[in-house]
Amino acid sequence: MTTTTADTRTAAPLVRLTDAGKNYGNIIALQGVTLDVGASEVTCVLGDNGAGKSTLIKIIAGLHQHTHGTYEVEGESVHFASPRAALDRGIATVYQDLAVVPLMPVWRNFFLGNEVRKGPAMDIAAMRKMAKQELLDMGIDLRDVDQPIGTLSGGERQCVAIARAVHFGARVLILDEPTAALGVKQSGVVLRYIIQAKERGLGVIFITHNPHHAYPVGDRFLILKRGRSLGYWKKNEVSMGELTGLMAGGSELEELTHELEEAGAEASALREVAQVFEQEVAELHVGGHGTPPSGNTEARGDPTQP
Amino acid sequence: MSQTVDVGTPPAPARDERVARKSPLARLMTRPEIGALAGAIVIYLIFFIVAPPFRDANSLASVLYVSSTYGIPAVAVALLMIGGEFDLSAGVAVTSSALVASMLSYQFSANMFVGVLVALVVSLVIGFINGYLVVKTGIPSFLVTLGTFFMLRGLNLAITKIVTGNVGTNDVSNIQGFGAAKAVFASEFKVGSVSIRITLLWWILFVLIATWVLVRTHIGNWIFAVGGSAPSSRAVGVPVNKVKIGLFMTVGFMAWFTGMHILFAFNTVQSGLGLGNEFIYIVAAVVGGCLLTGGYGSVIGAAIGAFIFGMANQGIVYAGWNPDWFYFFLGALLLGAILLNNFIRLRAEASR
Predict the structure, then answer these.
(1) CA of A159: which chain B residue's CA is closest?
(2) pLDDT value at A296 more than 70
(3) Among B3, B219, B291, which would you mutate to test the A interface (most chain A Cβ atoms within 10 Å of its Cβ)?
(4) Looking at this predicted complex, what is its ipTM?
């Protein structure tokens, strides 16, 4: 496995951090992070709790400013004063817990802050129609965009928030742990959505601590640990197992792998039963025994590849 | 951990189960006004049956008049509550506004409309201060406005005593411009044999405007949003602080209007007036389906809530019942409405 970051850079990507860092007083929260996000690319930022993921997205999203290195948007060095300033450059952030207002209808949420106006009033019919169509384009078919968004599942709510950012001209999407609170199936919905955003030409920064979610959708991977970058790879330079290993850290992982492989035998047996079952009773959902801990995701039905 | 709500799969096979999930009745049940409307019909029928004088058209006009004097401030209180905040100072702010207009015009022998306009500015400033303190300090509006409530109550009495040497103001009916002001704020007209107070028309107008703003404009969208989740609203660029301050100032405006009505209906103002009315505005809003926690409700509901209050207030008299029971009735109504609202909200937020 190569740990170099050279030769992966293109000319003036949408977002580029070079050796960026952030100090809070004398505390070094983030140090030496180099990152490129191009159009139609998913860059995954992986790291355990406290690794500096939040600090990194806050810098990119304009909530905080970097104290070291450079931050460029399309080749131009920037220091965003507010999230609004970042938004104006097409950098939108979807926070896990701040995505939507649960009691409001889907369409009102979708256009919140960007209402379509017709004279002094809103063009409600157009907004309903656009929200429905935009969600349909992204694979969410809602019978009724008037239902409170709180009645949707967690995954769907994340998807509406993402669709909203896409619709309002985001070119770089920052997704803050969008799958963290979701079940397996729901995560699959969000991951599929990330692919859709990518296919539409957006650059996506996908923050997660789950390599099983990151690897299938990612093009590049940045691993953070204790505020430092452990490395930055293209997909063909690193394997799923290596990613997991780097996140957990060498020797601890070997033990863990050993344990998991034993458990994995059982899990694959279960999987066979499940597959047979699924074929016979297509409408029943037999999945949901958790992520099989064997480490080879390709063998498992990858929810993101139709 | 089977997920029952799976709409994630692209173009949808699961249509049937979703249709079944929401019957027309359930949809009707989620309207915020529905509980209040049902309650209003029941209460109207009860008084119609037990109190013969209640059936008279003039009685209905007087019920509507009483309803309008509480319903006008309740319009703004409902908007504020949907925006996630309270205003306990609204009741005494009505009196403050009337006192300012009355004393200013009387003491300076100024045209009545000078007092009216100064009172408007004072009321808007009170609203602004309430809102500014709430959004800048992050202290719950319940506490902030409790503070301003006591301060206004003290100011009303103290300043009135200093200026007039009395607890009430002098009669302003001889001041220039009184007639015109009375025509705007406190006149009556006849429809057939029924005498209608102009506040009823103003009330209807305010309810219509507020409903239109709330449901049809982007401002209304923002009001729902800041009440439903202020951080989420801020994250998508809604000016949360401006919306909240604007709502407090709307309460100030309606308090001013009600204060002007009281002044021109009675010619004098007692400085102790208005105490406790803030709760009646809140009751009207809550009975009308506004959630105390914000983000949900309706101005029409608050109007129905005020109408229920007016019916109960007058109906007990027409029925010859002991009016001592009135507040017990009001409290029971409030509890019932809160239980109903809780139930509705749980439904709306189901499957989170």
Answers:
(1) B8
(2) no
(3) B3
(4) 0.80
Section A4-21 average pLDDT: 67
CA-closest candidate to residue B348, choices A195, A101, A136: A101
Q: Name the residue with higher pLDDT: A293 or B350.
A: B350
Q: Is A21 an 8 Å CB contact of chain B?
A: no
What's the CA gap between B309 and B338, in Å, rounded?
Answer: 16
Residue A15 · residue A172 · CB < 8 Å? yes
Interchain pair B2, A288: CB under 8 A: yes
What is the domain partition of chain B in residue ranges?
Answer: 34-338
Mean pLDDT within A96-104: 78
Question: Whole domain around residue A162: which residue ranges?
Answer: 15-251
Is residue A32 included in any domain, yes or no? yes
Asked whether residue A97 carries a pLDDT value surpassing 90, the answer given is no
CB atoms within 10 A of CB A221: 25
Mean pLDDT of B316-328: 86
Amino acid occupying residue B85: E
Per-residue model confidence as pLDDT tens digits over A234-273? 888 888 888 777 776 655 556 666 666 666 656 666 666 5
- Say how far apart CA A215 and CA A233 lie, in whole Å: 11
Instruction: Give me the residue from B8, B217, B228 closest to A101, CB to CB.
Output: B228
Q: Which of B93, B65, B118 is nearest to B265 (CA)?
A: B65
Instruction: Determine the distance in angstroms separating the CA of A252 from the nearest CA of chain B, rounded to an integer.
Output: 30
Whether the CB-CB separation of A45 and A206 falls below 8 Å is answered with yes
Question: Residues B309-322: what's their mean pLDDT?
Answer: 88
Contact B237/A114, CB-based, under 8 Å? yes
| Per-residue pLDDT tens over the stretch A185-230 | 778 878 888 888 888 888 999 988 888 888 888 898 888 888 888 8
Domain at B34-338, CATH from 1.10.286, 1.10.10, 1.10.3470, 1.10.20: 1.10.3470
Q: State the residue for tokens 């355990």.
A: A48
Q: What angle do CA A110, A116, A118 make, to 5 degrees?
A: 150
Nearest CA in chain B to A107: B221
Strand, helix or coil at B286? helix
Tally of domains in chain A: 1
Q: In degrees rounded to 5, what are phi and psi of residue A225?
A: -145, 125
Instruction: Give me the count of residues in chain A.
Output: 306
Residue from B15, B18, B217, B221 whose CB has the most chain A CBs within 10 Å, to mutate: B221
B255: its two tokens = 């308090």
Residues of A in contact with B216 (CB under 8 A): 121-122, 124
Using CA atoms, how far apart are residues B315 and B55, in angstroms rounded to an integer? 10
CB B104 within 8 A of CB B118: yes
- Calpha distance A213→A210 (Å, rounded): 5
Q: Is A258 on the interface with B (CB under 8 A)?
A: no
- Whether A272 is in a domain gets the answer no
Q: Given B7, B15, B295, which is nearest A101 (Cβ)?
A: B295
CATH of the domain at A199: 3.40.50.300
Q: Is residue A297 part of a domain?
A: no
In terms of DSSP bridges, do strands B188-191 and B194-197 run parallel, antiparallel, or are they unpaired?
A: antiparallel
Check: CB of residue B78 under 8 Å from CB of residue B290.
yes
Q: Is residue A85 part of a domain?
A: yes
Would the CB atoms of B8 and A104 count as touching at under 8 Å?
no
- Are A113 and B7 in contact (CB < 8 Å)? no
Instruction: Write the DSSP symbol of residue B270.
Output: B
